[in-house]
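yo

u said u wanted the structure for the complex thing, so here. seqs first:
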Amino acid sequence: MSDVSPLAPAGFPELPPIAGLQLATHEAGIRYAKRADLFLAELAEGTTVAGTFTKSLCPSAPVDWCRRILAEGDGTARAIVCNSGNANAFTGRAGDTAAALTAELVGEALGVEPDRIYLASTGVIGETLPEDALRSGLPALAEQLDNTSPAAWEAAAAAIRTTDTFSKGSSARIPGTAAHIAGIAKGSGMIAPDMATMLAFVFTDLGVAPDVLQAALSTSVATSFNRITVDSDTSTSDTVLLFATGEQIDDEILSVDDHRFADFQAALDDVLLDLAHQIVRDGEGATKFVQIEVAGAESDEAAETIAFAIGNSPLVKTALAAEDANWGRIVMAVGKAGQAADRDKLAIWIGPEQVAAEGIQLEGYSEERATDHLRQDEVSLTVDVGVGTGSATIWTCDLTHGYIDINAGYRS
Amino acid sequence: MSDVSPLAPAGFPELPPIAGLQLATHEAGIRYAKRADLFLAELAEGTTVAGTFTKSLCPSAPVDWCRRILAEGDGTARAIVCNSGNANAFTGRAGDTAAALTAELVGEALGVEPDRIYLASTGVIGETLPEDALRSGLPALAEQLDNTSPAAWEAAAAAIRTTDTFSKGSSARIPGTAAHIAGIAKGSGMIAPDMATMLAFVFTDLGVAPDVLQAALSTSVATSFNRITVDSDTSTSDTVLLFATGEQIDDEILSVDDHRFADFQAALDDVLLDLAHQIVRDGEGATKFVQIEVAGAESDEAAETIAFAIGNSPLVKTALAAEDANWGRIVMAVGKAGQAADRDKLAIWIGPEQVAAEGIQLEGYSEERATDHLRQDEVSLTVDVGVGTGSATIWTCDLTHGYIDINAGYRS
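structre next:
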């Protein structure tokens, strides 16, 4: 429906095969015509799993399902199945039934227990998943399973899209091993993560014990998916799942003190941050990729709150769209954040150009140089609030007519 | 600059004279050409005052000034002076100096102490008020003082506008007395009050002791200015001031137990709610006036938080602009509010049409009837979150291309 975001990467990356993982996609006609809307990843026996989910108090049925099997299970998983076009959220008992049916049908096809099968759905809220499409589509989906070729990865990333204008993938090699991490994500609007955002499925053929895997995931999510915002709206369906097949390692990582853990964590951080940035680059209507750095706050949490107050402000975001160095709106956003800030010590930079110091406009500040910076596709705002040592960096996009076009015209 | 909001009232109301009050306006050329940008109200000796101000941690110099003289003074005031075009915010020591100079010049002209003179400024943040314009404009302003004729009221309301597309005024008669309440307000963007919003100056010729006046004001503001939002952005300059001249009453109201207090409070509530609604009706780019009612929450505060989560959601606001009964976005907003809600008891109405009950779409729900309601200029959303007895009503507007036009094009 939309043109590709001007901030999109040049193309979909070439993702590596992950041993112990097979991918499939299928066109089930749940909502969209002429495109795949089902995605399946089959995982080798013994694959461990970790997950983070939306903090929404009205979560979707698949989020409830995943939370339950993650809490009650032994930390292993055999598959993840995802549909696009319908979020299976706010669908009451019918939603739970559709989720259970999905796991049952895929379980039958793969010969595994339903409670080893993770689920995700993304799309319209409030409509029941059509049972017919599931009954015909899911067995057909399982027949498409194939290795993790670059083309299979790209098809998988495409199958989970909704308003996304490009497919999102990222990978890293884990140093000193034959193992990789590779993952796909979707997300464009309703992006204001709170523990996790939208959908991301990430796989490694390293072996990692479930609790260690969860620790690594929670750490990475805190500084990647939880540090982005498009429109301050939090999805009912936010889900990040990380699977470790263990096929490329002799003995699994059992502790965060394992000497291999730091390399794994660093590679995971890279992949999740790359995917999170791709979601911002596909922010609905976005024309600018914006980094916001706050320093000098009372704590890191305070810095994050201030950074999100700036990044979610419609007045800041429209000024960025207009390439207008209207830094008064940044002051406004700092002021409304409710966190300690010393107005008379506040310092502000637009890109490399310092605008204000000690609470007033700097002598020698050049609005022209600031505007030149804002004319670029990638811009940065930096604020020192002058009260402590807390800091945080977040990423967001501008607010344009494109956002209104997409959301006043399309029921996503 | 903009056409008048489609939600504007038919015209400016005819406001009554307030005994003990004189108004003046003047064109000082602070920023705008060919329009008055200074407003002065002189108040009779003995006038009492109450005020509420922005909770922004980066308040403007006039807000600091008002807070100080309100706290240190004896509860009386002799004047309020306001300029538009420049907010005198984030201007450091130069801002404090400009504020003090304003009070000094007006004090000299009127023969009263500067610390009886209340100040307000609205407009661009970060620029110093031009001293020349103050030195020539303020004495000239004081020479324009005139009675509170309907025309003088309308000129006063016009002089304090910035991006406003119409002038805002309201009045009420206090039953059983010869006294009135009359006030003016400005506000259109950067509207997400936190204790007070934007500028409103309200006058009565009743006599009310300062602490009683403050109690009445705080009560009224809580359910009027503090219950509106345009864009979730909180101004550095939000100020509501209430003055009581006492010229139309023999003995002043000294206690909230006074039998006349309830009538005064009710009249004040009416005037402030009317002014608050006029600000929403002039919300930047607004095409719909939206009432959001939340019931069944754990507390009234929880209900207010949920109502603002709905009212500030860009996805809800763009759906309203599109007249799209996309109630899944309401569920999303309830879910992200962080307040207790029972997904399986949630009920939703669009206007009179019930959409959902007990967590699922109602059988017999008519999207056509819901859409018919959304086609009107004034629409309502009602949500029962099913966990308690807390309730709250707020008012907002939709999010349209007009908001982007105004804020990506105009440095306000």
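DSSP finds eleven helices and 16 strands in chain B. The first strand of chain B starts at residue 21 and ends at 26.
cya
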